[in-house]
Amino acid sequence: MGAQTIRLLGVEKHFARAGKRTHALTDINLTIDAGEFVAVVGPSGCGKSTLLRLVAGLMPASAGTVHYDDELVSEPRKNTGIVFQKANLVQWRNAIDNVLLQIDLRSLDVSEYRARAESLLSSLGLSDFLDRYPHELSGGMQQRASIARALVHRPDVLLMDEPFGALDALTREQVRVDLEALWLRDRMTVMFITHSIDEAVLLADRVVVMSARPGRIDRVLKVDLPRPRALGARKAPAFIELVDTITQEFLARGVLDDHRTQRLLG
Ligand SMILES: Nc1ncnc2c1ncn2[C@@H]1O[C@H](COP(=O)(O)OP(=O)(O)OP(=O)(O)O)[C@@H](O)[C@H]1O
Ligand SMILES: [Mg+2]
């Protein structure tokens, strides 16, 4: 199956617990085109993970609908790959068998996917670590294995929730470049959630900027930077301009505060 278009129409999400109501998301209307890479940035608590879970079919919306092409999402789909902030590898399986778990769970033929699992792990710099168990891998390596696990079954949609949050800055830069390369090859539809403005601009075709609770879409910015956006892309004027536009937006909304230093220093 080819990449899918994701559509969110009038999506709202409320949570209610012990008489307290949280309005997490309001008036979310967004289309992510088939094969498009969309990043979502926004302040902590604005509903990004909630949005991802709704798109993944892991929880229902309070109002509005989520669609993949013409199909209404009401439960998790087989053809989605998800990467969460924590790698969550199974401790008693080595790296390649953790990746192949995805195949086992779908009752597919593991032997048909072994070569792809190896090649994904190699593209992510883990060719020498295929038979290592999670406790023998660094945190960054575990996260790279979890990215391979999300891609091994050739998903048409890839959903990532702060997937690089636990990585050190250098690894993060490398894995970003690797992820772009994998996406350029397979062209699945991607929703990528991050706190990092730089990362959003470096990876995405469009950046969705969210405002604080109840989370809503503030702006959607198109990123016209040539691909692949290797390490040098940070120097491009279009990169600097877009990062500045998003930073100004967060300053205007009080998400960032540039004057705190002066106040602290008195
Ligand atoms: N299962 C839940 N039950 C009740 N409230 C929830 C639940 N999940 C999320 N919330 C609330 O919804 C709001 C949005 O949470 P969410 O995790 O989506 O934010 P986020 O943007 O991903 O934040 P962060 O950047 O810190 O990960 C928060 O106020 C949170 O407390
Ligand atoms: Mg979150």
Output mean pLDDT.
93
The tally of strands reads 10
Major pleated sheet: 6 strands, mixed
Name the poorly predicted regions.
none
Question: What is the second-level CATH architecture of the largest domain?
Answer: 3-Layer(aba) Sandwich
* Number of domains as seen in the coordinates: 2
Radius of gyration computed on alpha carbons: 19 Å
Query: Proportion of β residues?
Result: 15-25%
Strand order of the largest sheet: 6-7-8-3-9-10
Q: Please, what is the CATH homologous superfamily of the largest domain?
A: P-loop containing nucleotide triphosphate hydrolases
CATH fold field value of the largest domain: Rossmann fold
**Class by SSE composition:** alpha/beta
What is the CATH class of the largest domain?
Alpha Beta
Order of helices and strands: EEEHEEEHHHEHEHEEHH
Cα(first) to Cα(last) distance is: 60 Å
Choose one word for the global shape: globular
**Helix segment count?**
8
Ions and ligands: adenosine-5'-triphosphate, magnesium ion
Description:
The chain is of the alpha/beta class. The protein has 8 helices and 10 strands. It has helices at 48-55, 95-105, 110-123, 139-151, 169-186, 197-203, 237-252, 260-265; strands spanning 6-17, 20-32, 37-41, 63-68, 71-72, 80-83, 157-161, 189-194, 206-211, 216-222. The strands form 2 sheets. It has a 6-stranded mixed beta sheet with strand order 6-7-8-3-9-10, sandwiched between helices. The longest helix is centred in the last third of the chain and has 18 residues, at 169-186. It is globular, with a radius of gyration of 19 Å. Adenosine-5'-triphosphate is lined by residues 15, 17, 22, 24, 42, 44-50, 213.
